[in-house]
Fold each of these.
Amino acid sequence: MTTARIIDFIKNRRPEGPCLVVDLDVVKNNYHAFRHAMPDSAIYYAVKANPAPEILSLLASQGSSFDCASVAEIQMALDAGATADRISFGNTIKKERDIARAHALGVNLFAVDAHEEVEKVARAAPGARVFCRVLTSGEGAEWPLSRKFGCVPQMAVDVLVYAHQLGLESYGVSFHVGSQMTQVDAWDSALADAKRVFSQLSKQGIHLQMVNMGGGFPTRYLKDIPSAEAYGKAIYAALRKHFGNHIPHTIIEPGRGMVGNAGVIKAEVVLISRKSDNDDARWVFLDIGKFGGLAETMDEAIRYPIRTVHDGGEMEPCVIAGPTCDSADVLYEKNMYPLPLSLTIGDEVLIEGTGAYTTTYSAVAFNGFEPLKAYVI
């Protein structure tokens, strides 16, 4: 959402070129909404969503833990004030030397999803705690995250038994229902799988302690979304349903839901044209596209709210594209986007809900365009 603070910043600072502006007050409010909705779950912010130092420092000061995908992200979390016991190395695909480096920094919680990854952790971080990621369907998510990560539940049992045999602490299981998950009951079947893994390992004398329930919590784009409280109630009901009175330690990993609605991208209309004299489709080219930070428009999965100074006037469906010399740099074409007929070259537009997965997706210098500038206020 575009807050008054963001509007004032853009008005007074007049930053040059496309840029992201993030309001820390919104991030703080989101954190406490999750804290209130799921008071018994530890919050591990997914650093990859937006690793701005100001965001990490704020969350560390509020008591957040951190889900990190690399040694660089681990160092960022430590620099922001987190202690190593509040960091999870949540990537299931790690170089052995990176595992060793993380362990040397004090990190003792690692994700795995294969026997081969367990072997690396056992060699590089002996005695560490591991949790195995289980595949989920991702049905209902706008950005599914399974298939590449995780294994079937029965393999998870075997992987955790193997970890135990190699001297690691088989600590728990994890799953991710898919990013921008708008179905509050999506965690139910995944928790059922987690319980089966718990039960099978218990029969073998290995008692798991933790379920990492991943992220998936959405931010608002064009459609309303359930509240954090609604997710909390549904997830707690599913935990009680499957684990009864023996609910394990739980972790959630909000990323998009923590910072998505805190950011707005200021962009400019570079060109408005048609492909023929009788072409019904108006093409609107912005100074930001897929390679400048809007990669999540791939397959038109994420549709961002776009505000203009002409809102309220007559609208027309448009093709929206970015500025680069690459034919893939088209944001919305299959499902054209309504924009005001009075929109013109040079107009400023605000792209809302862009606090997550924009700066980190921005190319370094594709076509010579600078990476997306970011301001945190």
Amino acid sequence: MLDGITFDQAAGGLGKCLDYNKANRLPKDPAYTDLGKPADYRIILAMRSTGDSNAPGDGYFVVAVREKPVPTRLICTVKDGAAAGLNTSGGDPFGDAKTPVVPDINSGKLYQQSVIDKGNWKLPFRWGIIGGYRASVATMTVSYGGGAGEVVLDHGWFVATGTLTKQVTAAPHLKGYDATGKLVYDSDQDASYEKTLP
């Protein structure tokens, strides 16, 4: 929990996000997935969100994961006390990737402002990036915009956060190390990782 967001606020936001998912399903939608209830999830990140030209209004993000019945990850935005957007993915967070660290492909929601605002982001900007890590990874580091952020490893998920104070063109740079301190992952060497911002 960051930026003064309490666990109760984050849990309440998670509940609103799951209600939002149910309320916005299309009748008889074969692609609809019931995302379950808040107690099924572990909140791995809650942080403020910054409005931009594409999605005005500040609020906060809630990122939560569950393991059963199907591994699920959700990123939800809460604004003015209501869920304002939801992104979910299901299944193994590693997919077909063989790398020891796999940044979530939808993390851009957490570390970018709108392409419309390129070069003119609101600063300072709280950012985050999430993804999976394998047991061979003991520690990770992250840098973004020339500054170091903080990385927490949490039961197979990593959460990296920080605050930008200047405009950027490159995505967060992640490194993973094994228990001996050997570099085992570098996002600069990961062909599937988008290293520049759109």
Amino acid sequence: MRRIIVFCLMGFLCSCGVASSKPNIVLVFADDLGWTDTSVPMMPDLADSRSQFFQTPTLERMARKGMVFSNAYACAPTCTPSRAGIQFGKTPCRLRQTVVHDVLAAERGIDCKDEVSIAERIKRIDSEYVTAHFGKWGFHPRSPEHAGYDVSDGNTNNGEGDYLDVQARTPLPPEDPKRIFSVTRRAIDFLEEQASAGRPFFMQVSHYAVHVGLAAREKTIEKYRDLARAKQIDKKNLPTYAAMIEDLDSSLGELLDALERLGIDDDTYVIFTSDNGAEMFRAKGTLRGGKAQLWEGGIRVSTLVVGPRVMSGATCDHPVAGWDLYPTINDLLGGDALPVEFDGGSLLDAFEKGNEGVISRNTPELIFHFPWYGGALPMSAIRDGDLKLVMNLHTDEVRLYDLAQDLAETTDLSERLPEQTARLRGRLLDYLDEVEAEDLDDMFDARIRELNRYVQRERERPEPDQAVLRRHANALESTHRARAETEWR
């Protein structure tokens, strides 16, 4: 029986061969893993596209066996909308789930409960499939069970990655930081059970690492303390962060080893990617910005693929996004063509032919929308070929970059290339209008209403908690301040 596994930590993985009609699928996500946070060069000719400090031998193993996608993007610059985009095969702005805490969607009753999840699509193609989700779910409008998963860890979020018991704040054991190894153990148990029974399956493994707070095994941390001293690097949290990345990579190695032990590695597609770019304080290398921003550092993610129909040791430079996974899996399983509202396109031809392959999308461009109400500058962006246009949602100002020549987004070409700028700006606005994307002012107003409700509720208590009131007051102040901050940054 042919097997397919899809891992989303940072990217997509695969190796060459012939797929069968019953591929198994596993999706593994990393959390907040940046484009340059592995020892695999995302671009062979760009030294800064890999880390010279972090060590990820399992990902290197996958790169040798499969394909690296050099221009791969998360669905969004933060976790919740990115996870929604992968689950439902559409851009977060089409789903109207564009930020982590989408108060506007909640007010309007938009919960994606009528959307067909990737697990549900698989079961419609073949009802024999068993579906599982392990680790961080991170999309509360729908639970894993409601989204079609037969087995799961439940409607989990960041807290489960820090505590054994979230309510009691019981810490995780030191040998299982961020649940890296226990999540992997459950995934392997599931693999063994389905392989023994001969059942086809889809499994998503969504790690809590490498999200804050930082945690890793002490022996791995000590390795990087020694390495930092040897390299004369004095960054307080770097050894722990590096150790967490390596622990995550080690757990991925355990999973790949299990596939080999079970004799299904040659029949398995593995896709590895991250839900967004690195936290701003970690961001490094060539890319501008980080998490919660639509600059490249916030959305470009490491992506590798291995599997039967994937070229070995190859790099594919086609721009791809998280919402391409849904049609890819649909294609691998022989599903019918998806309706036009599914934005992505199958990557199967790219798996087989690399840069010679063709990716046909219902929405040809990659479009991102992030009407955030605090912290980072609210932006929309569109990428078409090598050109990327970004729009300041406060002012409607735009900037244009040629990513083939200017990956760091330092040189604005909007005045030099007015026709291309006008074309991309028009296409971006048309798309946002077509999908009824969430408006920035509406998002701000909904957040203010929510915070005022919190304040009123606390004041109506017999003994209001002054600390809670101060926290809400600070949140109101920062939200109003964010509305007034319109400068590019």
